[in-house]
Amino acid sequence: VCGWGRSGGAVGMCERPACSPSGTPPEELYTPLGVRFSPNNRAVLVVLPFAPWVVAYRWSNIEGFGEAYPAPPTALGPVTNPCWTDDGKSIVYMETYAFDGLLQTLACVRWDDELGFGIRLAKISVVGDVGRDAMNPANDVIVVSTNNSPYLSAVAFDSVTGFGSEYPPLTPAAPNPTNGLSFTPQGDVVLSTNGGGEKVLQTQWIDGTGFGAKIPALTAFESSEVFFDRYASVAILSRGTPVASGRPIQAMKWHPDLGIGNNGPTYSLPGLVPGASVNVRHIEFSPANDVVAIAYGGVIRNIFQWSADTGFGAAYPEPDELIGKTCSCIAFSHFV
């Protein structure tokens, strides 16, 4: 974890925050699969590749890691795609007990900034190999992508009481299994990636009703993930598997009625990484929407200036602490 600072209107990398005497930075213990900050920056959640699957630390943007929170009172299964609710009261995640796609559940555990993990709420079984789960901006709907028809499903959600009723399935069903998944920041469109001829499926979302009409989608770029900038003015598609040639990402304007790829040329891309094979794992925009960070499956990551009007800007130098280390996930702490 590195600091990110501003001086005189410029943005740059700062000295790495010191670790609290009572806590140990996670990277010294294991290779984490993901990291998430709580909405108020008082905690950081680290996803592990083995039991106990997650660990949470107290966090300060000034001092860095603090002491570890106690383990969840109810043991959690293997955790993927954790997401804090905006009110900080719950963490939603996928729990996978077998990689054959038969024993996966959408789960939720309560959270308290002082006490840490609370009770685990009732879970929902999901049939099929889950690609991603995504929460809408209002935090009252969760959509899940799977490899079983209709490939997209949605359920009502409350951060206090947990999961509610399922919404009617997408009709007609998505043409192929879905993987990457994202709501627009306005919450009115669900985007998912799939392996069919239509590489990105764009579906309107109607509050209280569920899935709506489909928006004609981009077909020219095979993608595994969709990432939006903070204001949903730009969408970046990424390939999650190694690319021997061609572009590992593609950035383009987003239009609420026309979707992506239908309203103007794509943004020009900077030189990303040397070498022929690129495996893009994660893309993250800063809270101010003026920086974009790209994580790769190898030992390279890029951080660029970003503008919704002009796209990628100059690259920032990589801090010495990160050179030569694998990067699987990037997270910016929040403005509070």
Labels describing this entry:
336 residues, mainly beta, five-stranded antiparallel sheet, four-stranded antiparallel sheet, 27 strands, 0% helix
Structural class: mainly beta
Q: Could you state the order of secondary-structure elements as H and E?
A: EEEEEEEEEEEEEEEEEEEEEEEEEEE
Shape by Cα distribution: globular
Radius of gyration: 19 Å
Q: Enumerate the spans where pLDDT stays under 50 for 5 or more consecutive residues.
A: 1-29
Number of strands: 27
Percentage beta strand: 35-45%
If you had to describe this structure to a student in words, what would you say it looks like?
With 336 residues, the chain is an all-beta fold. It is 0% helix and 45% strand. It has no helices and 27 strands. The chain has strands spanning 4-7, 10-13, 34-37, 43-47, 54-60, 64-68, 79-84, 90-96, 104-112, 116-120, 124-126, 130-135, 141-146, 152-158, 162-166, 178-183, 189-194, 200-206, 210-215, 225-228, 234-238, 249-255, 259-260, 280-285, 291-296, 301-307, 311-315. Strands 7, 8, 9, 10 and 11 form a 5-stranded antiparallel β-sheet that branches. Strand 18 (200-206) and strand 19 (210-215) form a beta hairpin. The two termini are 19 Å apart.
